[in-house]
Amino acid sequence: MPVRSAALATAAGAALFLLAAPAATAAPHDARHVTESVTIDPTGRIAADGTVTLSGTYRCTGSTGPVFVGSTVSQSDPNVRYSVGGTLAVCDGLEHRWVDTGTLDAGKLKPGAAHVEATLVELRPVGIVPLPSFHARHSQDVTLVQS
Questions:
Q1: CATH number of the domain where residue 98 is located
Q2: Which residues form the signal peptide (predicted)?
């Protein structure tokens, strides 16, 4: 399996963990102390073929395993979320951009209001099985525009 495909497969697996994960604890009130974060751009894109593109920024530090930014989107039913993909992250303490693109069946989503959740998750080696370790999580309403 090519490296990119392996990374996307790993991110997809991590996204499954995200769907069942409890909400992250509240962030500190003083922004000067925030060392890890993930943001979501207020506008996403959707193509006629169902391709969805979401983006934002992230910042993380201190990883021992691969770290991914995974994203999900929901629209009419908040209980139905679609995984858009995963982006390999670099945890060097600096702010970086992330972009996730995934293709859903045409008609699953349409231009307009949507809700997006982005999670910064590390697959930390524990024994022989990598386990998810959450660095940051954010959700917000966005607008999907036709591309």
A1: 2.60.40.10
A2: 1-26
